[in-house]
Design a protein that fits this description.
Layout (H helix, E strand, L loop, with lengths): L2 E2 L6 H19 L4 H5 L9 H20 L10 H4 L24 H21 L3 H31 L24 E4 L2 E5 L7 E2 L6 E5 L2 E4 L5 H9 L11 H10 L7 E4 L2 E6 L2 E4 L11 H10 L3 E2 L2 H8 L21 H4 L13 E7 L25 E4 L16 E3 L8 E2 L2 E4 L1
Parallel strand pairs: 11-14
Antiparallel strand pairs: 1-4, 2-6, 3-5, 6-15, 7-8, 8-9, 10-15, 11-12, 12-13
Helix pairs in contact: 1-5, 1-6, 3-5, 3-6, 8-9
Length: 427
């Protein structure tokens, strides 16, 4: 999870960021019981308690242990329990068995967080070393990633419960029954464009180096594909027609008996979906979510279009303000685009928030990319195989966490994230 930064950070500003991020994580845990925070619903998910402890372990192991004299670890066994992928650090609890960590309790994990919070505050009051402040800043952005994962993993857990409990107040959200408007497209010239992060702000290492790439003339849809569009795909037999699908995707559809997006169900002819607010009717005008890369590609093929490349997506998004339906809205579900946006032809809308948008691009290294030295260099680079890039953030992404250059990535069959699509086509 390496970061890159070319500036000397102010320790006081980093402490403010640290305190806010840590408070936000604590707030996410407030609706959860100890049992809610302990259970692991599938190997790809982690218990909420593990997310809270692992992000704390990062600060303790990566920042405090090497930099704060006389620091005493809260519990030496936590180095095994809450390490994630850091092979250079040592052995760890296997990921599929994180739900077996019934002890420590949630209360003990929260006490662990307070212990580390106090020590980080003490360290930042003692130092102005840019290497330390940059590492704390990295830990904050790392924790924001886990805040999003905590919510997506809780949704998956609650969806397995026959009571389908709600993480947030379950009152039904408004559903629009308006008809989908005319299809709108925005055209862009081809040419050599600059892609990747450039500047002095925080960014993950995989977002750079900035480099030139060639794109051909293309068009991008005004908004994300909606649930209503997806219902048409379902009812046209989209999940039963192999010609729409990549070979691996069709094998996945047959093996897993997919017939609609993840969390969807058909109740007497009406589509419903499990959400963080409990079971809710599917809003035809809201962006479709919880679909895999395979499904996104199949839908695009069905309508005679394609997914955008990440270079095309970034080229368009780089001139737009980073605003949208993020976690701070409290909705925790994609929504219908605002009426004013639907009337504007100036630029595509919903580029940020609502859903991560699948691109057609594999997650690979940019030209001249090099992994960082040490344990913090283990995260991004070693996963550059078998994954596809998503862009833009979602309704459970912390506000301020994403940038036009931000590269999320997941395997092509992943569906439990808030992932959707926007259509593109060649000109």
């Amino acid at each position: 999870m390496a970061a890159s930064s070319q500036r000397s950070l102010n320790a006081a500003d980093v402490l403010t960021l640290f305190s806010q991020v840590r408070d936000d994580s604590r707030s996410l845990a407030l609706p959860l019981s100890d049992a809610d925070a302990t259970v692991q619903s599938m190997p790809d998910a982690s218990p909420a308690k593990w997310h809270l402890a692992h992000t704390t372990w990062f600060f303790e192991r990566m920042v405090l242990a090497p930099n704060l004299s006389n620091y005493r670890a809260f519990d030496e066994t936590f180095n095994f329990l809450f390490n994630s992928y850091y092979e250079a650090i040592g052995a760890r609890q296997p990921r599929p068995r994180r739900g077996m960590i019934t002890r420590p309790s949630l209360d003990t994990v929260l006490n662990y967080r307070e212990h580390v919070n106090e020590a980080i505050s003490r360290l930042l009051h003692q130092t102005s070393d840019p290497a330390i402040t940059e590492l704390v800043e990295l830990g904050c952005h790392h924790e924001q990633q886990h805040q999003e994962l905590l919510l997506t993993d809780i949704l998956h857990l609650f969806a397995q419960n026959p009571l389908q409990p709600a993480y947030k107040d379950p009152e039904p959200l408004a559903v629009s029954h308006a008809q989908t408007g005319a299809e709108k497209w925005h055209s862009f010239d081809g040419g050599i464009v600059d892609i990747g992060y450039e500047g002095s702000g925080f960014h993950f290492d995989c977002e750079g180096p900035r480099h030139r790439t060639l794109i051909e003339p293309f068009a991008l849809a005004h908004a994300q594909v909606t649930n209503g569009d997806w219902i048409a795909f379902i009812e046209a037999g989209g999940y039963r027609e192999p010609l729409h699908w990549l070979s691996a995707g069709w094998d996945t559809v047959k093996t897993n008996d997919w017939s609609m997006p993840f969390y969807w169900q058909n109740r007497d002819g009406e589509y419903w979906s499990m959400t963080l607010r409990g079971a809710q009717p599917v809003d035809p005008m809201a962006p479709v979510t919880h679909i895999s890369y395979f499904e996104a590609d199949a839908f695009a093929t069905w309508v005679g279009c394609r997914l955008a490349s990440e270079a095309e997506w970034e080229h368009v998004a780089s001139d737009l303000k980073v605003e949208g339906n993020f976690a701070d809205s409290g909705r925790l579900r994609p929504k219908l685009i605002d009426g004013d946006d639907t009337k504007s032809d100036a630029h595509p809308t919903q580029m940020f928030g609502d859903n991560w948008e699948w691109t057609r691009s594999p997650f690979t290294a940019y030209p001249r990319f090099k992994t960082s030295e040490g344990a913090v260099g283990e995260y991004n680079g070693k996963f550059m195989c078998g994954q596809f890039v998503l862009r833009g953030g979602s309704c459970v992404t912390p506000a301020g966490h994403v940038r036009p250059t931000y590269r999320n990535f997941f395997p092509p069959d992943a569906r439990w994230q808030f992932s959707g699509l926007r259509l593109a086509k060649d000109l």
